[in-house]
Amino acid sequence: MATKLQIGMTAVVVVGGIAGLLTQQLTIAELRETTAANQQQIVQLSAEKAELARLRNAASAEPAQSRAAGTAQSSTAPITPRQAPRSVPVPVLQVTPASALANLPDTPENRAERERLFNRYGPFLRERGLTPVQIDRFIELQMHQNAARNDLQAAVRDAGAKGSDPAIEAMRRQLYEPLLSEMRSMLGEDGYKDYINHEKNSFYHLSYVEPVQKTLAGEGSPLSPQQAESLRQLVVANHRVTRVNPTDISQRSSVDWDAIIAGSGAFLTPAQIELLKIYVSQRR
Questions:
Q1: Among 73, 16, 33, which residue's Cα sits nearest to residue 198?
Q2: Count of CB atoms within 10 A of residue 239's CB?
Q3: CB contact at 8 A, 208 and 260
Q4: Considering 53, 112, 141, 196, which has the largest number of Cβ atoms within 10 A of its Cβ?
Q5: How far apart are CA 179 and CA 27, in angstroms?
Q6: How distant is the alpha carbon of residue 218 from its chain centre?
Q7: Per-residue pLDDT of the chain (284 residues; tens, 9 = 90+)
Q8: Nearest to 48 by CA among 86, 91, 77, 84
C-alpha cells in the first residue's frame, strides 16, 4: 500500500474542477503495470513543452492535411518538436469501472490509514445518511485515490519531470475521476459540495487547530469551541502553499504563525497567547 496522502490545496482545487465521466478510465493496478510507459511519455512531454506551446498557438492556422500528414509518419522515428502531438499525451487503457475495484488487503498499514480516514470523514458521512457499507466503500475509494496519487508522484520523480506540467495534472484527473464519480453518486451533487467544504475545513482543523488545542489543554488553558473556530479562520486567512521540489505534483501547506499570533489577541486570553508563542517557537 502506498504511503499516506499528503493533503494539499492543489488536490482540493483539482477535485472541485473535475466534471463528467471519462469514456476510458485508468485503474491503479494497470497504472502500476504501465509505469515504464508513463514515465517515457512524461520525459518526452517535459523535453518538448516549449515547442508544444508554440504549436498550440499556431495550430488553428495549420491545414487539416498537414496535421494528418504529421501523424502518418513512422512511429519508430524519434519524436521531433514538429512531430509533437498537439494534445496532452495521456496513457489510454481499457479498464473496469471504479465500482469494480477490489477491496484493499487488510494490512496493518491499511488498517491505520482506514482509521485515520474514518476519524476525519466518518461523522460527516453519517450525517449525510450513508450506510455503514457505503461509508466503508467511500473510505476504500479514498484509499485508492491516495494510492493513485503516490504511483503518479513516483513516476514523475523517477522521470525528473515537472510536477506542475499540465500533462501531469491531466493524468491525475484521469486517474481520480472514476473514484470521484462514484463518491459523487453516493453523496449527490449537494452532498459532494459539502464534502469538498468538509475536506478543506477538516484539513485546517487537523493540521493546525487541533495541535494547538491539545497543547493549550495540556497547560490548563483549553480553547472554547468559539476560540477554536476563530483560530481556524485566522489560519485560513494566513495560509499559503508552495511547491518544494520541481517534481512535486502537489504543493506543501504552511501558515504565517507570526501573523496568527498578532491576530489572536482578538479572541485569546493573554495566557493563551503566551502558550501559543511557546508552541510556535517549539515547532520552529
A1: 16
A2: 17
A3: no
A4: 141
A5: 9
A6: 33
A7: 333 333 332 333 333 333 232 333 334 444 444 444 544 554 454 444 444 444 444 444 444 444 444 444 433 434 333 343 334 344 433 334 555 566 788 899 999 999 999 999 999 999 999 999 999 999 999 999 999 999 999 999 998 999 999 999 998 998 899 999 999 999 999 999 999 999 988 999 999 999 999 999 999 999 999 999 999 999 999 999 999 999 999 998 899 999 999 999 999 999 999 999 999 999 88
A8: 84
C-alpha cell at 32: 502500476
* Integer CA distances (angstroms), 25 to 13, 97, 150, 175, in order: 21, 7, 18, 7
Specify the residue for cell string 479514498: 142
- Is the distance from CB of 119 to CB of 144 less than 8 angstroms? no
In this structure, are residues 180 and 15 in contact, taking their beta carbons and an 8 Å threshold? yes
Instruction: Dig out the grid coordinates for 29 from the structure.
Output: 493496478
Q: H/E element holding 240?
A: strand 239-242
Contact 229, 254 (CB under 8 A): no
Phi-psi domain of 227 (left: phi exceeds 0; alpha: psi -120 through 50; beta: other): alpha
How many Å apart are CA 116 and CA 119, to the nearest integer?
Answer: 5
Does pTM surpass 0.85?
Answer: no
DSSP string, 168-232: HHHHHHHHHHHHHHHHHHHHHHHHHHHHHHHHHHHHHIIIIIHHHHHHHHHTT-PPPHHHHHHHH
Residue 152, C-beta contacts closer than 8 angstroms, at least 6 positions apart:
31, 38, 168, 171, 172, 175, 249
